[in-house]
From TrEMBL, chain A:
This is Rhotekin a. The keyword Coiled coil applies. Transmembrane segments: none annotated. Residues 471-515, 580-635 are annotated as: Disordered. PANTHER family: ANILLIN/RHOTEKIN RTKN, RHOTEKIN. Residues 495-515, 581-603 have a biased composition (Low complexity). Residues 1-72 form the REM-1 domain. GO terms for cellular component: actomyosin contractile ring. It comes from the Eukaryota. One of its GO terms (biological process) is actomyosin contractile ring assembly. Gene3D superfamilies: Pleckstrin-homology domain (PH domain)/Phosphotyrosine-binding domain (PTB).
TrEMBL record, chain B:
InterPro entries: PDZ (IPR001478), PDZ_sf (IPR036034), Synaptic_Scaffolding_LAP-MAGUK (IPR050614). It comes from the Eukaryota. It is a peripheral membrane protein. Its main location: membrane. It comes from Oncorhynchus mykiss (Rainbow trout). GO terms for biological process: cell-cell adhesion; establishment or maintenance of epithelial cell apical/basal polarity; neurotransmitter receptor transport postsynaptic membrane to endosome; neurotransmitter receptor transport, endosome to postsynaptic membrane; receptor clustering; regulation of signal transduction; Wnt signaling pathway. Residues 43-140 form the PDZ domain. GO terms for molecular function: protein kinase binding. It holds the Pfam family PDZ. SMART domains: PDZ. This is Tax1-binding protein 3. GO terms for cellular component: adherens junction; basolateral plasma membrane; cytoplasm; nucleus; postsynaptic density; postsynaptic membrane. Keywords: Acetylation, Cell membrane, Cytoplasm, Membrane, Nucleus, Phosphoprotein, Wnt signaling pathway.
Length: 635, 151
């Protein structure tokens, strides 16, 4: 039982490691997507993102299945049912798909005329068996192409004969402009908020009372991964199909595609409706030695003295009989070979008069003639093992069917070069997109990132070059804590001087933007005092978006940048809202007498909705204004 | 007793749903969900109650990015600037819906509440044209309960 637990722990931690890896890759892809300005980069990053997402989903499903299986097993053991049945399992095998080709069907007039703007789409395929997901390279498709060809060969190493290979074709229109720098303010805020709403809507839809059983109250608990919103090119599923053992053949075959989407979609590519590919499988019983050992063989009915000592190796559809065990490694031809295929008949025979152990008879038809060999092992246990091996071989062949007729060839894919993010070393300035209203720190962030990129370019390994940029070192704290400072950032450099009187009250261990340092941007690359090593500040665009959104939310942030209008607390007019908490309580200066009494009108946009309560004591209000209090509001 | 939990993964622009079963009362091996970056949330739907001219929810909030997080008595992490429920009016709409003191409000009707000022948070809860607010909250006890069931 302990051994079983250990293997389970092993499997669990394997999946856990994989999920961790994919989440890191995903983070990197998100950041790259947010930072890149070239279309090709954005499309590649978006493809990586989709692949990572799909992999995370697959691993989580796998994890869930494993947990369920564990619990079911425990339940079964606990109940007084008979122990687990000893089901025979077929061997696993390699499944390879290659030479994918998807024919297109452009309208005649389009193809031959070839005038007007070329509508281009970026496409790629996702191939999935169980929890193993591979993606092909991305291909740009336009009117001049008659077929989409993917050169990749993709091998799944441990597939069972009942495998289901899901092929999905994703496409994305490659003409829109995705760079966030060009995104107008309104659009950025609209995107952030609309994504929030759609996520909220999905929450509502998902939490149908019928879908889950309530725990203690109301709806069920929801597990949510809080991840940043992403702006960029988005791939859509264009077509899919599922292949299985029946589609396996040692040659090209055409299969039907199920197409989603229609001509109206931006990501539409006119597909003919089928996909050609070569799907091959190599079951392990065909490629590996399933059983080996010393045997005595003679032809049936022959002279009792004509036993031959051989070293037998059961592999594929043959039992190879070598003179000596060393011949196997030396690649010397076996003395003879006995066929073991679906037409072979094997039975254990009665005790031979001259032998103590049972012998095994193998009958084959060679050209109309029936030839029988008799095998004898050294001991009863060995005989039993050989019989077991033969039964397993037969079972595997019955499960893998046509794959066991002959060994199919699978060409291993040549190691792929990691795709470089930027192939040309352009000028830094050409690659930066700067909006006039942008924070200067955005620029320095891009510079910093680019520097790191160039520095780390030499570390190209199996992971994409940008991976190393965004890898968190274990000691580094997560940067979520830094975000709060963004709304307080001054949007215009010109207002720096007026902030001399403003100090930040909040306890901030993290570094602040250049704006809040009186020295200006003398140290653009300064970082949190927590980390001792250089760490690129990659959240500036996230922060930027939330800044933009904050601006869209009623100009509350503008308050913080205005110099205090009065040096003493002005008497509060009767119309002041008693219950309204005042925003920007941070912007008090160290002199307690001067406080920015920001009129709520600015934040509300409309006169106060609550009835006035002139009876609210001034002391109470002062207490509310005092930043040392932790405000509470009743809603 | 089996309680079914819906796993909702928000991948930026891709949102996927996946049923995620957690079985209570039986010991299931815990893979250490810190690696999976989960936080356990609960959805609370509150119907506002009309009291004279106002629509009230019946609870109080504290916190915000403009507030001092060290003074939050409910947060585990004293640098957490989120919005917390500081009081629940007995018998009010919030209590009826299952909101509890100490809950951290993550979303209101889809609007994020983790990076907002105190006033922004208050405003999002008191919109005049909304009769129902759907909150996404998390509480330590819920998280512990689910984690414990996974142990």
């Amino acid at each position: 039982m302990a051994g079983m637990n250990n293997s389970k722990n092993q499997r669990d931690s394997n999946i856990q490691k994989k999920i961790d890896h994919e989440i890191r890759m995903r983070d990197g892809a998100c950041k790259l997507l947010a930072a890149c300005s070239q279309r090709e980069q954005a499309l590649e990053a978006s493809k990586s993102l989709l692949t990572c997402n799909t992999r995370i989903m697959a691993y989580m499903s796998e994890l869930q299945r494993m947990k369920e299986a564990q619990v079911m097993q425990r339940v079964a053991l606990r109940s007084s049912d008979a122990g687990p049945t000893d089901d025979r399992l077929p061997c696993k095998g390699k499944v390879a798909i290659s030479d994918l080709r998807i024919p297109l069907m452009w309208k005649d007039t389009e193809y031959f005329k070839n005038k007007g703007e070329l509508h281009r789409c970026a496409v790629f395929c996702l191939l999935q068996v169980g929890a193993e997901i591979h993606d092909t390279d991305m291909v740009i498709v336009d009117r001049t192409l008659t077929d989409i060809c993917f050169d990749n060969t993709i091998v799944f190493s441990e597939a069972s004969p009942g495998f289901e290979l899901r092929v999905e074709l994703y496409s994305c229109c490659s003409e829109e402009d995705y760079s966030t720098g060009n995104t107008p303010r309104k659009l950025a805020s609209k995107l952030s908020s609309s994504l929030g709403r759609s996520a909220g809507k999905k929450l509502r839809v998902a939490m149908d009372p019928g879908a889950c059983s309530p725990i203690s109250n109301g709806g069920g608990a929801t597990l949510l991964l809080p991840l940043p919103t992403v702006v960029g090119p988005k791939y859509h599923l264009l077509a899919h199909t599922t292949l299985s053992l029946s589609h396996v053949q040692d040659s090209f075959r055409t299969h039907d595609l199920s197409i989603s989407g229609n001509e109206e979609c931006s990501h539409w590519v006119p597909l003919y409706g089928s996909v050609c590919c070569r799907l091959a499988a190599q079951p392990h019983c065909m490629t590996q030695q399933m059983m080996s050992g010393c045997l005595k063989v003679k032809q049936f009915g022959g002279d009792p003295q004509s036993w031959t000592n051989v070293y037998g190796v059961l592999k594929g559809t043959n039992l190879f009989c070598y003179h000596r065990q060393e011949d196997v490694e030396a690649n010397i031809q076996p003395a003879f070979t006995i066929s073991i295929n679906k037409k072979t008949r094997i039975r254990a025979s009665e005790k031979d008069l001259h032998n103590k152990a049972q012998s095994i008879c193998i009958s084959n038809h060679y050209g109309g003639e029936e030839v029988t060999h008799t095998l004898s092992a050294d001991s009863r246990e060995d005989t039993h093992r050989w019989m077991e091996a033969f039964w397993q071989q037969f079972y595997d062949m019955s499960q893998w069917k046509q794959c066991c007729d002959d060994l199919m060839k699978i060409e291993l894919p040549s190691p792929r070069k990691p795709t470089l993010v930027t192939s040309k070393q352009g000028s830094l300035y050409h690659e930066m997109v700067i909006d006039t209203s942008d924070d200067i720190s955005t620029v320095t962030d891009i510079l910093a990132r680019r520097m790191q990129e160039l520095e780390l370019r030499s570390q190209l390994g199996t992971s994409p070059p940008w991976m190393s940029l965004f890898e968190d070192s274990p000691g580094c704290p997560r940067t979520h804590n830094r975000l709060p400072h963004s709304p307080l950032r001054c949007p215009r450099p010109g207002l720096l001087s007026s902030e001399a009187s403003l100090t930040s009250d909040s306890d901030s261990p993290c570094s602040t933007s250049p704006c809040s340092r009186h020295s200006g941007w003398a140290e653009p690359l300064s970082l949190s005092s927590h980390s001792s090593h250089f760490r690129p500040r990659t959240l500036s665009l996230d922060a930027k978006l939330s800044t933009l959104r904050g601006r869209g939310c009623g100009g509350v942030l503008q308050c913080s940048c205005q110099p205090p209008s009065s040096s003493s607390l002005a008497p509060i007019p009767a119309q002041r809202v008693p219950q309204a908490t005042l925003s920007c309580s941070n912007s008090t200066s160290s002199n307690s007498s001067s406080e920015g009494s920001h009129s709520p009108e600015l934040s509300d946009g409309t006169p106060f909705s609550h009835p006035s309560s002139a009876r609210q004591s001034l002391r109470n209000l002062r207490a509310k204004l005092d930043p040392r209090n932790w405000l509470q509001s009743q809603v | 007793m089996v309680c079914a939990v819906i796993l909702l993964l928000n991948f930026g622009y891709q949102t996927m749903e996946m049923p995620f079963c957690i079985l209570k009362g039986s010991s299931v091996h815990d893979v250490g969900d810190s690696a999976l970056h989960f936080t356990f949330y609960q959805r609370i739907e509150i119907c506002k109650l009309r009291q004279g001219e106002h629509l009230i929810l019946g609870f109080s909030i504290g916190g915000g990015i403009d507030q001092d997080p060290g003074q939050n008595p409910f947060s585990e992490d004293k640098s957490d600037k989120g919005i917390y429920v500081t009081r629940v009016t007995p018998g009010g709409p919030a209590e009826v819906a299952g909101l509890m003191m100490g809950d951290k409000v993550m979303q209101v009707n889809g609007w994020d509440m983790t990076m907002v000022t105190h006033d922004q948070a208050r405003k999002r809860l008191t919109k005049k044209n909304e009769d129902i607010v759907r909150l996404l909250v998390t509480r330590k006890s819920l998280e512990q309960a689910v984690r414990h069931s996974m142990m």
